[in-house]
Target: DUF6594 domain-containing protein
Amino acid sequence: MLRSVEDNEFKIIYVKGYPSLAAFISSDRDKITAIYRRFDQLSARNLLYLQSDLVELEARQGKYDAEDRQRTTGEKASSRDWEILMNKASESNNTH
Model:
């Protein structure tokens, strides 16, 4: 960091390469130098993988909900009360 005697301000000197380029881009008030690659194919692939994971989780949740509908009223209390849910989850005979 250098100090300018005339302006009584500090000027940060960045290492050449990514640090100085990032400082230049972020200092642009009009944001016209902020040009980035979008990685469209990679983004699309990641979204497809994430969707696939969510579909599997959604199916698993549906299965759990169906099991919960078959439970007694007392057993269903864990779906409404966090403390009951945590107690049941910590029980040694819990199968889920």
Q: What stands out?
A: The first strand starts at residue 2 and ends at 4. The chain has a mean pLDDT of 85. Residues 43-90 form one domain.
